[in-house]
Amino acid sequence: MNLLEKNLLKPGPLGEHAHYAHGYFAYPKLEGELGNQMFFNGKQKLVWSLNNYLGLANCTEVRKADEEGAKQYGLAYPMGARMMTGNTILHEMLEEKLSSFVKKEDTFLLNYGYQGMLSIIDSLLDRHDVVVYDSESHACIIDGLRLHIGKRFVYKHNDIQDFEKQLIRAKKLTDQNNGGILVITEGVFGMRGDTGKLKEISAFKKQYDFTFLVDDAHGIGVMGATGAGTGEAQGVQNEIDLYFATFAKSFAAIGAFVSGKKEIIQYLKYNMRSQIYAKALPMPLVYGLHQRLSLIKEKPELRTQLWEITQQLQNGLKQAGLEIGNTQSPVTPVYLAGSIDQATALVRDLRETHDIFCSLVVYPVVPKGMIILRLIPTANHTKEEVGRTVEVFRQIKLNLAAGKYDNQLQLS
Q: pTM of the full predicted structure?
């Protein structure tokens, strides 16, 4: 069979819904200035779906820095991969500042978070090595592990007893073939909002001699006394061998970085194929990231505002009878029970009747029968917006229980 024809017959677990989802539930277009109020299908909505934790996306200082960076350097600069012609003083200065911020010896800038994590995993492992990782790890980690030709053992989400069980299995193998163990988890899990058990995991390092890699995409800038991340918040930043974070969340930009000891960062610089063979992060982005990092360090009130809004939202939802799970971060999932067609009718009601826009997560991302409405609070949201949202969510929960969203044929 022709390869293209074959794939059209198997659109995939997400693609099978494309005929009704595209443009509304999937690939929606939010328009207007980035912020709490944006336009969707021509109508203004209250938006809870932007990973703009500290509100930097439209911050005056950030917009000015982005403009200055583009004006001074243009989008083409630098031309080439960093190993060849794309290295600059500005890139290296940002790496030094990030190292200081997350309390590591050295840092390597990465073009994209997804690509970066995949490439870190690929460059660290050979067939004798074994990986132990959390079952709810992000897709970039899973795809990186697909490149690994050795063994990998998954432990139940945040289950330390099962984690040690998988460590024991890994140690037996590495003792036999002289391999090493890589442990991977996340600082903040982006779907459910709970934090990885970094402190508990670190306690096993001496006994099992593993390398500890933490993906803190949702923790950087948000967690910890200074915003240096979940390792700082749990008091184990020194135990993390490779600290990875992206600029796509609290920094409101593009790109990522990985920090650790000088020797291992030097190794990554010369072995990460996604960076060796890809053009360097464009200068306007690097220029703007300097300003973003300065604001994160110099304006702790942004983090304070974020947490005030987060606590009001999460407490309000719980008091209204909504289930938000075990979130320990600004990520706020609302769990409901229902089918996909009920979920689509419910979201249409949210968007069209109540003018509230948030992300919908259903099977196959979560088990059948589960609906997750994920809300991302920011430092820019107001208490009035929180109050309005809580009341609407109280109503949609009642509507779902009363059968309002049944048999509305939203899948056609």
A: 0.95
